[in-house]
Amino acid sequence: MINEAKMTELTQAEDMAYFRADLCLYSPESYSMDEKKEICNDMMATSKAVLDVMREDFQQLPPEARAKLLDMLCQSGVETADWWWDVLVGDGDPLYRELEPLS
């Protein structure tokens, strides 16, 4: 199982990436094109890292626990059942499979 400190570090990095994006949206003229690309890439990379760790953690559970957790998440109304399946069991979030970092 992932340790709490690692997950906190990942979610804080994701929060910071999205905070920087909000600042950029508020004042886009204050950022160069390269800085905007970096912000976009950080958003994608940090979100993907969080989902990857969730997937790894999920895969370490016993099969019966995975089934119960997946069922609970699919019924939660947070995201769709297909999204949860893709992220935890399938090939990962389709968004991150299709997008490439900006260069």
Provide a compact summary of the structure.
The chain has 103 residues and is mainly α. The chain has helices at 4-26, 33-59, 63-75, 81-88, 94-98.
Query: What is the overall silhouette?
Result: elongated
- Taking all Cα atoms into account, the compactness measure Rg is 16 Å
Low-confidence stretches: none
Total beta strand runs: 0
- State the separation between the terminal residues, measured CA to CA: 34 Å
Give the number of helices. 5
**Percentage of residues in DSSP E strands:** under 5%
- The percent of residues in helical segments reads over 70%
The biggest beta sheet is recorded as: none
- What is the structural class? mainly alpha
Mean pLDDT: 90
Could you give the order of the helices and strands? Answer: HHHHH
Summarize this structure as a short list of keywords or feature phrases:
103 residues, mainly alpha, 74% helix, elongated
Question: Can you describe this structure?
Answer:
With 103 residues, the protein is an all-alpha fold. It is 74% helix and 0% strand. The chain has helices spanning 4-26, 33-59, 63-75, 81-88, 94-98. Helix 1 (4-26) runs antiparallel to helix 2 and helix 3 packs antiparallel against helix 4. The termini are far apart. The mean pLDDT is 90.
Which SSEs are present, and which pair or pack?
Elements: H1 4-26, H2 33-59, H3 63-75, H4 81-88, H5 94-98
Helix pairs in contact: 1-2, 3-4
